[in-house]
What does this fold into?
Amino acid sequence: MTELAIETRGLTKRFGRQAAVDGIDLAVPRGAVYGFLGPNGSGKTTTIRVMLGLAAATSGEVSILGEEMPRHLRDVLPRVGALVEGPAFYPYLSGAANLHRLDTADRHAPSSTRSTRVARALERVGLSHAAGKRVRAYSLGMKQRLGIANALLSPRELLVLDEPTNGLDPQGTREVRALVRSLAAEGTTVFVSSHLLAEVEQMCTHAGVMSAGSLVAQGGLDDLRRVGRAYVRLRTPDADAARAVLASLRLDLDDAVGAQAEPAEHRQSTAQGADAGEEVVSAVLPLGSPAPEAIVAALVRAEVRVRGFAVEGASLEERFVALTGEGFDIAQ
Amino acid sequence: MPSETGATSGDAAVSAARLARPSAGWALLTSELSVLFRRRRTIAMLLALAAIPVLIAVAVKLSSSPPGPGEGPPFLDRITQNGLFVGVTALVVSIPLFLPLTIGVAAGDTIAGEAGLGTLRYLLLAPAGRVRLLLVKYAGAAAFCLAATSSVVVAGAAIGVALFPVGPVPLLSGDTITVGESVVRSLLVAGYVTISMLGLSAVGLFISTLTEVPVGAMAATIVLSVVSQVLDSLNQLAWLHPWLFSHYWLDFTDLLREPILWTSFADNALLQAGYIAFFGALAYGRFVTKDVLS
It folds into this structure.
């Protein structure tokens, strides 16, 4: 049995009548890098707040590192490093002084090693040169790094990073990804929330997708990809005959999806009219349908001129959009 | 369970070992005091308070005619005879407004200031512990009461010694005490005024748990100190007076009699302790269950 670093059961948080988090069951295995995905306003940060005992759950249970929260908060939180809803510091103190200050709040953090640990955390996020500067003078990216340094002040078993790459330049984003990977390699479980799918795809082993307060999908990244439907994409001048063949093989003809995901270079070639009369036929490949080569063989037997044929898995992005909906509306 | 977590990784084993022996946690109090007293705003407030006795002393020194008996604030007429009265005069002047003003700022900022900056969530995630944080914050506010009072008294003594003659001090009862004893009495007065402000600090702490806007908590605390004094001056509300936290504020003069009248000291201490207990409990009730969403 895999031990879970974070487990929630029916976790719900209501503000008045509105449920910001609605009965979610998170399962984050130990050692995983778990991407907590969702559009803005889908309840990610609220979940994290409730999980870490900053806010009380309306109902449901949370256990972190095997201990019930918030009852065992005192024993659990020293083992958890967190960056929640952006960094926050005393603007009139230097970066190092801020870390000192926050470290004194942890009774388990030995004061004898405080200066060393602060220096090492600053070094790890590349802020050593700015350690003595007042945080007032820090850029957003530097504050973000300092926030991550704060999470790394002590050796942690679990890191909870809420939007860790916010405000970072591409270089900083890469560094955060490398940092997360190296922490994971050391055995730390990392729970990272993000609204950026690409980020999650690049560094996570597991993911959960939030939409309007509900957890709509969860699992290993590969499993999540697999759940997505596969498509057949066929280039041919004999579109109607091809459609008939595909339909007879029980593939779902789905032009809308095909058009949306049509490769750019092909769209260009039709636009130029070089292959006049050539069309792209796409269809969804349901489970249990014939192997791709059998489909091609059937097409050729029916004298369909096959100029291009591909089977494409749904990208995680399509899956993400399918789950959370498209557009910029903040979920209500 | 530390035994289960030890298997995950080397780091995990280290942090599990760390859990076995938490320190007493005084470091947070030390840090709170150092952050509070190294902050420019705090220093500015203490300097402003110290400027009050200096202003009084310089004004009296420079005026051609010394204040006659009973003129101006209490004790003002005695400054020219004895510099040791400057501190006491300055306290009488600052107690109604200046002192509560600075204390309202310090006490109102306690929790709301951290919430406003967002550092409250990181302190709680450390975890500081909500009760521990509340106690440390109140201790910081109390330390500021002491510092504020002391800066008036000490600056008053210093400027008084510098500008005016110093000698045996005549008391309100007509007796005279030595310079040495007058220092002891000054310290007693400083203690009395510090205690007087603890109730207001507790009110400020409670208000501070209600909001994420520190300025609001500060203003509310200061307004309450004014309201309390206004109510205390209305004879129609005499029944209420012994319950107002500002009721005994100016009775520190009882410490300047021979023998000392300790009743007002005791009444004041009891009243302030009641305020601390009541508003401390309210702050606890509010803060321990509060959703920290800032």
